[in-house]
Amino acid sequence: MSNVISCDICVIGGGSGGLSVAAGASQMGADVVLVEKGKMGGDCLNYGCVPSKALLGAGHAAQHVREAAKFGIDADLKGIDHKAVHDHVHDIIAGIEPHDSVERFEGLGVKVIQEAARFVGPQEIEVGDQRICAKRFVISTGSRARIPAVDGLDEVDYFTNANLFDMQEKPDHLLVLGGGPIGMEMAQAHRQLGCDVTLLDRSSIMPKDDAELVDIVRRNLVQEGVDIKENISVEKVRKEGDNIILTTDQGEVTGTHLLVAAGRQVNVDGLNLEAANVAYDDKGIRVDARLRTSNKKIFAIGDVAGGFQFTHKAGYDAGIVIRNALFRMPAKADYKALPWVTYTAPELATVGLDEEAARKAHGEIRIMRWPFSENDRARAERKTEGLIKVVTNKKGLILGASIVGPSAGELIQVWVLAISQKMKIGAMASMIAPYPTLSEVSKRAAGSFYTPSLFSEKTKKIVRFLLRFG
């Protein structure tokens, strides 16, 4: 090796979590090296959260035009320029790129090396013709689309989230393999942009969310024209002319383009983790509660550490690592209040325990619901398809909440705070919510906890008794 670099912290992976560690540690006085073999910003900026929400934004805009008549507005959707939609998506990416750029991080004092990293020892990696020795390493290499073992799939052209947003023409009929968040969001976006869409899943769509609320999302996508086929097994893929044909256990399904969104696979290839004594499996690098690997000098965060695979989880992990690596604080990750959102219309957001998990953990529970159809703001904007569902123990401790409806991802945040602070339902019920806002669904649901006792015969007797005294 012609060059040996020594540093305090070496971060491998320039996605959300890695960038947060690098920026934070450098600004706190640590000597930091960041190694990224691909694009700065990682999957989220370039192939995931940002472009998918930009594409959904375009689809939702088209759908608003189609539905304008319900407000008394005569509007026609004259056409959709798919090249212009593509340009819109990449314009959004370009606007965020400077925040994650090499130049910005070098300005923060981080040494950035754009090469692949490979461990050659417990505290040493090779990067090109350089060797880096660090007091602590942080692995934040993320994940990629998992490609299922389907006969013939490797013989046809297909999309994953990594190349979907490069498409500039309209897919006449998009086939989507997978009914998780990516599959559902992209199915709706393309349908709203004028494509025929068929989504197939070997089980039920959105299996990690509350089935009662998932049904509302399913119903809305079907009404918009997405053909959802659940509990169906794809056995073979073949190309015939301009068509892609899926052979399933229920017959053949034909389309023109194919998106594979059948889960995620962690990125550990080429890291040579064995040389660093870092244990891992196909679910990710094994970490303890402090996010340390089997080599206590090496941390793993975000998708590559297994478990929840969300950008905000990686950002949270970064804070845990900084406290451990820089301040020697025994900080532990706690995901009890970690929310997740599927950004379909309506959105579906969840935090904490669902009904089934709450019963297993606490036995007797209470469930509160409130429909968006009884919310005046939702009525005014004709977005009444939705429901909030809150779970508490019998004493009112908030255990979980799920919301399906407009702006669910925004509305869930107050419940994230409540669970993280171990609040009881009374705090939410006594909150003053501005009128008219969608946030009133949270207060209404919380208040319904007290309905059985507040309007009981016992309460009526007490009120009648007290009224006798004038």
The gist of it:
InterPro entries: FAD/NAD-bd_sf, FAD/NAD-binding_dom, FAD/NAD-linked_Rdtase_dimer_sf, Pyr_nuc-diS_OxRdtase, Pyr_nucl-diS_OxRdtase_dimer, Pyr_OxRdtase_I_AS. The protein has 470 residues and is of the alpha/beta class.
CATH topology of the largest domain: FAD/NAD(P)-binding domain
Class from secondary-structure proportions = alpha/beta
- What is the straight-line distance between the termini? 93 Å
Percent of residues in beta strands? 15-25%
**Total strand segments:** 23
CATH superfamily of the largest domain: FAD/NAD(P)-binding domain
**Helicity range of the residues?**
25-40%
Shape: globular
Structural domain tally: 3
- Poorly predicted tracts of residues: none
Largest sheet: 7 strands, mixed
- Number of helical elements: 16
So, CATH architecture of the largest domain? 3-Layer(bba) Sandwich
CATH C-level name of the largest domain: Alpha Beta
* Alpha-carbon Rg, integer: 25 Å
Mean model confidence by pLDDT: 96
Describe this structure in words.
With 470 residues, the protein is an alpha/beta fold. The chain folds into three domains: 3-144 and 265-325, FAD/NAD(P)-binding domain (3-Layer(bba) Sandwich), CATH 3.50.50; 153-262, 3-Layer(bba) Sandwich (FAD/NAD(P)-binding domain); 346-454, Enolase-like, domain 1, CATH 3.30.390. Helices cover 32% and strands 24% of the residues. It contains 16 helices and 23 strands. It has helices at 16-27, 42-46, 49-66, 82-96, 102-107, 181-192, 211-224, 311-325, 355-362, 376-380, 408-411, 413-420, 425-429, 440-447, 451-454, 457-467, and strands at 3-12, 32-35, 111-113, 117-121, 124-127, 130-139, 143-145, 173-177, 196-200, 227-229, 234-240, 243-248, 251-255, 257-260, 264-266, 280-281, 284-285, 298-300, 340-342, 347-352, 365-371, 387-393, 398-405. The strands form six sheets. Strands 1, 2, 3, 4, 5, 6 and 18 form a seven-stranded mixed beta sheet that branches. Strands 19-20-23-22-21 form a five-stranded antiparallel beta sheet, with helices on both faces. It has a four-stranded parallel beta sheet with strand order 10-9-8-14. The longest helix has 18 residues, at 49-66. The termini are far apart.
